[in-house]
């Protein structure tokens, strides 16, 4: 079995995230980046499948040079190899362009042997859109089963459990398929020292748009269906108002809530 896991390098949510003033795209240099937390669950699930059956795990990312760190972290966790789609023309790509590039990359990975399963996180922690798995499945012509909180691979099938607010669904699809997983599915492992050292010898290929047979006009900010027109920094927090209770504290609190239209 060959499993491709999509991973993304995202700005650290603990940092002060913002946009580039030049083109209103996400600033990926002013703050440290890391492997998207939600993608770690997809990597872990692929590794669990590898441990229970004979499988090859390939991690795939697209983005600037720093995106290689997401691949490196995945290899340290235990993935077998990585692919990094790196091209200046990708800057500003939206979800449709991202799914186009990733679909072409999955096809190219499949040239050395058919891809049986594509695993993704439920969304990226920077864009939080969650639409790329569905778009990718459509471009590849594969069934998609999304938001898996449990995953089982059988004889030519994949079965997931999807937990909703009011019900739980069990969904089965034939392989190959695209599956997105939630943060309920497992507990991602930490890279061991042995894994960190072993990752240095694992192969990582870097592909350009030309390698994928794509034209730069199909991706990037100029081809994006949506753009950020403007942005304003969140104002700094101000000191709260102290209300001294002199027998009328309840009245003052009610007046404050009314003034803020909370009641």
What does this protein look like?
The chain is α/β, with parallel strands linked by helices. It has one domain: Rossmann fold, CATH 3.40.50.620. The chain has helices at residues 37-52, 68-77, 95-109, 132-140, 193-199, 249-259, and strands at 2-6, 9-11, 33-35, 56-62, 81-85, 117-121, 144-148, 150-153, 157-163, 168-174, 177-181, 204-207. The strands form 3 sheets. A 7-stranded parallel sheet has the order 7-11-6-1-4-5-12, with helices on both faces. Strands 8-9-10 form a 3-stranded antiparallel sheet, with no helix packed on it.
Write the layout of secondary structure elements.
Layout: E1 2-6, E2 9-11, E3 33-35, H1 37-52, E4 56-62, H2 68-77, E5 81-85, H3 95-109, E6 117-121, H4 132-140, E7 144-148, E8 150-153, E9 157-163, E10 168-174, E11 177-181, H5 193-199, E12 204-207, H6 249-259
Parallel strand pairs: 1-4, 1-6, 4-5, 5-12, 6-11, 7-11
Antiparallel strand pairs: 2-3, 8-9, 9-10
Helix pairs in contact: 2-5, 3-4
Short characterization:
The protein is of the alpha/beta class and 263 residues long.
Overview features:
alpha/beta; Rossmann fold; three-stranded antiparallel β-sheet; 263 residues; 23% strand; 6 helices
Number of strands: 12
Q: Structural class of the helix and strand makeup?
A: alpha/beta
CATH superfamily: HUPs
Strand content: 15-25%
Q: For this structure, what is the CATH class?
A: Alpha Beta
CATH architecture: 3-Layer(aba) Sandwich
Main β-sheet description: 7 strands, parallel
Spatial strand arrangement across the major sheet:
7-11-6-1-4-5-12
Q: Please give the radius of gyration in angstroms.
A: 22 Å
Q: What's the order of the H and E elements?
A: EEEHEHEHEHEEEEEHEH
